[in-house]
C-alpha cells in the first residue's frame, strides 16, 4: 500500500507524477532527453542501462517497465534483455556497451565507485565523452526514479503481462505524451 | 581530474550542466521546484534534507554547496547545519523534521528501506502527504545529483571559503538563473 494517498488505479511512478504534476514535468523531460535519443548511444542501449540499474536497485516496477521497452527496440528479444539485466558480461552485446554497463553498475553503488580504469576501458572501445556522460546520468537518474517509486511504496503490478502494451506505446511515441496522459492531481 | 572534457573553470555540477545544457534544463527546474518552495516544508528544511543525503552519499561538493545555502536560511548558524548533517537526532530542530530526515536517510540506502513505521511516526508529528512526498523526492533527487557530480569526477573546490558567496546568490535568487549563468557548452 502506498505511503501517501495516490490514485491506486495508476501504477508505479505514474501515480506519483499524478500526485505531483509540477515535479513530474521536468522528470518526464529528463527521461525523454536521456532515453529517447540515438545521438551516440542507441535508444536500446539507453533502456538496457536503465533496466540494469533498476535491477541492481531491486525496483520491480522500473526494471520491468524499461525492460519491456528495451524488448520493443530489440525485436522482441526478451532473453537478451533478461541476460543484460542479470548477467551482462555474457550477453550478446558489444564490448563497448559492456564497458558502459560496468560504469553504470558502479554509479548505482555510488559516484565514487567509478574508476579511471573503467572510463579508459570504455574510451578504448570507442565510447565518447558524451556516451560516458549519458551513461553516468542515466544510471544516476534511475537511482532517483527507483527510489521515488519504492520510497513511497507506489503500486507495482506484479502481472508481467501488463507491461508490454504500455512499453509499445512509449517505444512508438516517447515518454512525454504518455507519462502525462490520463493524469489528474489527486489532491 | 574529471572523467570527461568539461570546463575546469566551473565547479561540480555546473561543469556538467555546461557540458550538457539540454539535460541541465530539467535538472535545474527540478532543483528549483524541490528546494525553492515554502509550501509545507520550509526552504531551510529542504536544504537540510539535501545536505544530509549528500553527506550520507559522501558528496563533498553537494554537501558543502547545499549546507552553505541552508546556513543562509538559518541566519548563519553553521553549527546547526553541521549537526543536522552528521548527527541530526541531537540537533535543535523539530521532531517532525527529525522524522523526515530519518525517512530521507532510508531513501539514501534504497527506496525499500523506508518503513511504514517511519512514515506513521512522521505523520503523527504533523507531516502531510506532501511533506513525505517532497522528502522522498528530495532525497531521491540528491541520490542522482550526487552520483552525477562524483560519477564523472567533476572538479570540487576544497577551499570551503568559496561556497558561501554562491550560496548567498542562490538563497536570494533561486537556482534557475544562477545554475545557467556563464554556461557555455564546451563541446
Which helices and strands occur, and which strands form pairs?
Two copies of one chain form a homodimer.
Chain A: H1 12-19, H2 21-35, H3 43-56, H4 60-73, H5 78-87, H6 95-109, H7 116-124, H8 129-151, H9 163-173, H10 176-180
Descriptive account of the structure:
Two copies of one chain form a homodimer. In chain A, helix 6 packs across helix 8. The first copy, chain A, has a single domain, classed as AhpD-like, CATH 1.20.1290.10. Chain A has 187 residues and is mostly helical. Chain A is built from ten helices and no strands. Chain A is 66% helix and 0% strand. The longest helix of chain A has 23 residues, at 129-151. The interface between A and B is large, with 48 and 48 residues.
**CATH architecture heading of chain A:** Up-down Bundle
> What is the ordering of alpha helices and beta strands of chain A?
HHHHHHHHHH
Task: Give Rg of chain A in angstroms.
Answer: 16 Å
Question: Rough shape of chain A?
Answer: globular
The largest sheet of chain A is: none
Low-confidence stretches of chain A: 177-187
Tally of alpha and pi helices of chain A: 10
Structural domains of chain A: how many: 1
CATH-level-4 superfamily name of chain A: AhpD-like
Tally of strands of chain A: 0
Query: Could you estimate the helical fraction of the residues of chain A in percent?
Result: 55-70%
Averaged pLDDT of chain A, please?
93
Our measurement of the CA-to-CA distance between the termini of chain A, rounded to an integer number of angstroms, reads 18 Å
Largest interface: A-B, 48 and 48 residues
In terms of quaternary structure, the protein is homodimer
Q: Which range does the strand content of chain A fall in?
A: under 5%
CATH topology of chain A: AhpD-like
Alpha-beta content class of chain A: mainly alpha
CATH class of chain A: Mainly Alpha
